[in-house]
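PROTEIN DESIGN WORKSHEET
SECTION A - STRUCTURE
LENGTH: 412
TOKENS:
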């Protein structure tokens, strides 16, 4: 039992609440919240002295096994190396205040288990298993001269691979069933071309309508949902109409596609910091001027996309999608968005809306009775100054608690 006292609570229901609360944490959950003091009994009491207590943040688009920015090379890392390198990536996310992350392709159930049983530290991990891609699609990293079998064993289980190649309605149904059997929380598909993949221009649509319908039906049969990588308005409207729950990236959206998303209740997970990071460090990382120009275009349109999505009332979760050394920029996604959407809106995206995307509303992303005790103690008020969540890898986040256990304990 732990009591946090003198807490200034910040979440979607407390945008600007000056009351000082006490929060009682029992068995990993928030059991009581009350203004003023709670009887201590056997609880360890931590006086946070008026600091902000907010829910742990949720990043809805990460790749925890991507230690190498070139995903083709990452997919060929020896399994042991790929997994060992995921450990500090997961720890870094937790240290920055992300107590839940949704992996958009690559992480497997072994990592989930290792975190749950305390073998390694990390956020709650919601995995997709391997992302599904068609031949020549966004997770097919062979160049034009490479005609090797991308998946000789029938299902790509290289630990460092973010995706697997699958074509045809029957094959894709089986792939979903395999990923679900292996412990996936949701299914990820590549539904359009991308920025840095070798043979798929960004304007391509990927997978047939029948294939996508089959994935959506299978995911729903397994009581879960589909997240789709999609950039263009055409790709976005198509998959939103077919019933996917979240659109990943979505930079090239227009008003018409945003209206389709709003009508279908589709969520957006923009990932703006990844283009920002590429423009900062891409040259050193050996990206060509051509790729950098393409990246700059997508980056600027991504900022525009925030305004379009907001105009149509489409709900947005936080995504970062960073690879390799760039993982360290994760929280800068908040600052980039806040310039367009305002601080409080972005805090809601990083907490309560993230929980809706994960199907954990009321359990994650809120400071509420019955919710998991995933919370941050912040020295400062993020509504006034979002940078307190960002500075120096979370230096102002003086306390991080996950499931009632301190990852970083304030004042020690
Ligand atoms: Zn993607
Ligand atoms: Zn991604």
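SECTION B - SEQUENCE
RESIDUE ASSIGNMENT:
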């Amino acid at each position: 039992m732990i009591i946090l006292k003198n807490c200034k609570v910040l979440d979607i229901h407390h945008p600007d609440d000056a009351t000082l609360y006490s929060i009682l944490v029992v068995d990993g959950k928030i059991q009581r919240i009350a203004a003023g003091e709670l009887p201590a009994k056997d609880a360890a009491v931590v006086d946070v002295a008026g600091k902000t207590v907010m829910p742990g943040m949720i990043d809805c688009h990460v790749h925890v096994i991507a230690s190498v920015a070139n995903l083709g090379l990452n997919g060929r890392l020896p399994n042991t190396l790929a997994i060992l390198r995921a450990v500090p990536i997961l720890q870094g996310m937790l240290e920055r205040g992300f107590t839940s992350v949704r992996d958009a392709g690559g992480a497997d159930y072994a990592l989930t288990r290792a975190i749950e049983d305390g073998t390694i530290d990390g956020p709650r991990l919601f995995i997709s298993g391997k992302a599904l891609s068609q031949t020549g699609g966004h997770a097919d990293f062979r160049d034009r001269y490479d005609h090797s079998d991308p998946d000789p064993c029938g299902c790509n289980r290289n630990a460092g691979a973010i995706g697997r190649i699958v074509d045809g309605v029957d094959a894709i149904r089986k792939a979903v069933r395999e990923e679900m059997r292996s412990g996936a929380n949701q299914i990820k598909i590549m539904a359009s071309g991308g920025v840095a993949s070798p043979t798929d221009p960004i304007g391509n649509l990927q997978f047939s309508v029948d294939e996508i319908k089959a994935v959506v039906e299978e995911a729903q049969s397994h009581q879960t949902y589909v997240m789709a990588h999609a950039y263009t308005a055409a790709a976005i409207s198509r998959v939103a109409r077919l019933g996917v729950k979240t659109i990943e990236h979505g930079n090239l959206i227009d008003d018409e596609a945003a209206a389709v998303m709003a009508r279908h209740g589709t969520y957006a997970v923009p990932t703006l910091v990844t283009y920002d990071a590429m423009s900062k460090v891409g040259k050193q990382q050996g990206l060509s001027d051509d790729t950098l120009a393409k990246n700059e275009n997508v980056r600027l349109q991504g900022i525009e996309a925030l305004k379009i999505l907001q105009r149509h009332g489409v709900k947005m979760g936080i995504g970062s999608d960073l690879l390799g050394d760039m993982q360290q920029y994760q929280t800068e996604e908040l600052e980039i968005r806040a310039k367009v959407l305002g601080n409080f809106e972005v805090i809601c995206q990083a907490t309560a809306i993230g929980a809706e995307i994960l199907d954990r509303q009321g359990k994650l992303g809120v400071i509420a009775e019955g919710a998991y005790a995933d919370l941050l103690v912040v020295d400062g008020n993020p509504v006034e100054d979002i940078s307190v969540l960002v500075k120096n890898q979370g230096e102002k986040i003086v306390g991080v608690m996950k499931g009632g256990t301190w990852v970083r304990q304030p004042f020690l």
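SECTION C - NOTES
The chain has two domains: 2-56+365-408, 57-330.
The pocket of zinc ion (ligand 2) is lined by residues 61, 63, 104, 321 (CB under 6 Å).
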